[in-house]
Design a protein that fits this description.
615 residues, alpha+beta, Rossmann fold, D-amino Acid Aminotransferase, Chain A, domain 1, 5 domains, 8-stranded antiparallel sheet, 25% helix
């Protein structure tokens, strides 16, 4: 094991922190990397030594960094270059131990067409090709993953446009625009099997994870075991996953993903992820195995010490991904500074995170802030513990999906384990997570109780009029409240009394704004002057609804457009957003070009409305 030390962790955020902690527990030293955008990040401070780089995607630079740090092994984490066969090969060629599968296995499983053929040859059920003219079908990037480069097509006339969009997204994300077309299963489950393989030919599986709760093909909630899988089906899925791993000469940790019918009576190979998965903690808690430790031991040449017989799951674990995003604003990415950060300290709850108070959250990387994982003797207990953990997790300074996720987990379909990959999208509109009515009043009262310079009048960024504190009362949201005491608790939280009821809030205040959160809900208030300073003077203008990068500009000055025509396409935090003309008119003042970085509210262009025809 010592021959791996120091271990270079070629990644950032929570996975870099996660890998470092296990390496340190094994007595290994670590080396980290950090870019200017991550200056002061937690993952950089937890590593023993850190090398500054310009990009987490520059393979040559990462290898130079490993050499400078004296690293004898390299763990890629997930995302970035973790499934890049050329990078794995270059690391090995540099005399550094690659903590992952052989480059040949990465290459084979990274090509969806070849991976499907390999699975079929190994006797694993595969999805029929969508070439018989029947719809719906799905267009998928050959080198894809994580929902990138995927489009569902329900009619022949949609296929060309969907194919072009998938190819463009795939080229941007993976540098490869090849796609395949397959039959699309309606309301399927997404179930995956965790495998481990050592260098001595041993391959074992650690059961399955249910990952069906997804939005835009990105997983939101994962659990182990799947509520739809019994012992017999678990054995069959596990055998299929092990057979594929053996067929491709696999080593290290990996995941074989299946798509299954709603009752899970049929399952088909989807893809193999040749790396650690984001959702690996649920397997660790249910099976009592540290998967990163196993990766390190396998890379050191040790045998898997888990026994030859498949392990049985113990209890149930559920993971929720905490994202910096605004569910009420169409899940647009949120950016800002984390002003208050307090993790829940509860029985059966684990938090994997790479942020802390003071962390800057921008748009350069994935919007995931943390993972909250709850474990219990049964599924109902795990779900209750997760709900409580999300409610008591204090993240102040930017909007998160915590309250929305709590509402989702309380839905009857989810409680009963009847989820499928399309459920979340179908119930978005009815999964309401309205902020509690006291939040606005508590913010005003907490602000009035501080030395906040502007005084008692405030204006909420999202509207809802003004708020006033006066004569022992708070007027907020069209309601009057009796104003009570405001005090700071020993845990750092703020207790505010309204109408004789004291509640716990997380509060932060600066020169122009107050930020407040409760039970996963987040609110930002600014002074009236600060809000006015941010008002736009454009009448017909289009502004960036989120910070990000301009992918496409479809129009030029003088072009006529119709209401709904797409004029600009933005990308931020792995999400593509089309900006449409708000009305018929003529384009004027195009202010951006492809590749430009834009800030929230930055002007993009103007659509001058056509004058109404005279009588």
């Amino acid at each position: 094991m010592e021959r791996l030390s120091p271990v270079m962790i070629a990644n950032r955020g929570e996975v870099a922190v996660r890998v470092a902690r296990t390496a340190h527990a094994l007595g290994l030293r670590t080396a980290g990397v950090v870019t200017n955008a991550d200056a002061g990040a937690l993952h950089a401070e937890i590593a023993d030594v850190v090398v500054e780089i310009s990009s987490y995607l520059d393979a040559e630079e990462l290898i130079r960094a490993a050499r400078r740090a004296g690293a004898r092994s390299l763990h890629p984490g997930y995302g970035f270059l973790s499934e890049n066969a050329a990078f794995a090969r270059a690391v090995t060629d540099a005399g550094i131990t690659w903590i992952g599968p052989p480059p040949e296995a990465i290459e084979l499983m990274g090509d969806k067409a070849r991976a499907k053929a390999a699975a079929e040859a190994a006797g694993v059920p595969v999805i029929p090709a969508g070439e018989d003219g029947r719809y719906p079908v799905i267009v998928k990037a050959v080198a894809g993953g994580g929902g990138k480069g995927m489009r569902v097509v329900r009619a022949a006339e949609e296929l060309p446009g969907a194919t072009a969009a998938a190819q463009r997204e795939a080229l941007t994300a993976f540098g490869d625009d090849r796609v395949v077309v397959e039959r699309y299963l309606e309301r399927p489950r997404h179930i995956e099997v965790q495998i481990l393989a050592d260098r001595r030919g041993a391959v074992v599986h650690l059961g399955e994870r249910e990952c069906s709760l997804q939005r835009r093909h990105q997983k939101v909630v994962e659990e182990a075991p799947s509520p739809a899988v019994d012992a017999g089906l678990r054995a069959r899925m596990g055998e299929a996953a092990v057979a594929l791993a053996r067929a491709c000469g696999y080593e290290s940790a990996g995941t074989v993903e299946f798509i299954a019918t709603g009752d899970a009576s049929e399952f088909f190979f989807l893809e193999m992820n040749t790396r650690l998965q984001v959702e690996h903690p649920v397997t660790e808690l249910v099976y009592g195995v540290d998967l990163v430790e196993q990766q390190l031991r396998i890379a050191a040449g040790e045998a898997i010490a888990l026994g030859e017989q498949p392990r049985a799951p113990h209890g149930h674990a559920v993971e929720a991904r905490l994202y910096a995003e605004d569910p009420a604003g169409g899940f647009l990415p949120a950016a800002g500074t984390v002003r208050v950060y307090r993790e829940p300290c509860l029985e059966g709850v684990r938090v994997d995170s790479g942020i802390r108070a003071g962390s800057a959250v921008g748009t350069a990387y994935d919007p995931m802030l943390a993972k909250v994982i709850a474990h219990g003797p049964d599924r109902a207990t795990a779900l209750r513990r997760l709900d409580r953990a999300l409610a008591s997790f204090d993240v102040v300074g930017l909007t998160t999906n915590a309250a929305f996720t709590r509402a989702l987990l309380r839905r009857e379909e989810v409680r009963a384990g009847r989820q499928d990959t399309g459920l979340l999208e179908r119930v978005l509109a009815e999964t309401v997570a309205d902020p509690p009515p006291d939040l606005l009043a508590a913010a005003a009262l907490a602000a009035a109780g501080t030395a906040w310079p502007p005084g008692p009048w405030f204006r909420r960024l999202a509207g809802h009029g003004e708020v006033r504190v006066h004569a022992g009362r708070v007027t907020a949201g069209g309601r009057d409240w009796a104003a009570g005491a405001v005090r700071r608790g020993e845990d750092g939280a703020t207790r505010v009394s309204l109408d004789g009821i004291q509640r716990r809030y997380a509060v932060a205040v600066d020169e122009e704004a107050i930020f407040i959160a409760r039970d996963g809900h987040h609110l930002e208030l600014r002074t009236a002057s600060a809000a006015r300073a941010g008002d736009s003077g454009l009448v017909n203008g289009l502004e960036a609804p989120m910070p990000g990068t301009v992918l496409l500009v479809q129009v030029a000055d003088g072009d006529p457009v119709r209401e709904g025509d797409v004029v600009v396409v933005l990308e931020s935090m792995k999400m593509e957003l089309s900006i449409a003309a708000p009305h018929d008119g003529v384009v004027d003042g195009v202010a951006v070009a492809p590749g430009d970085r834009v800030a929230l509210g930055q002007p993009l262009l103007v659509v001058q409305a056509e004058p109404e025809a005279g009588p």
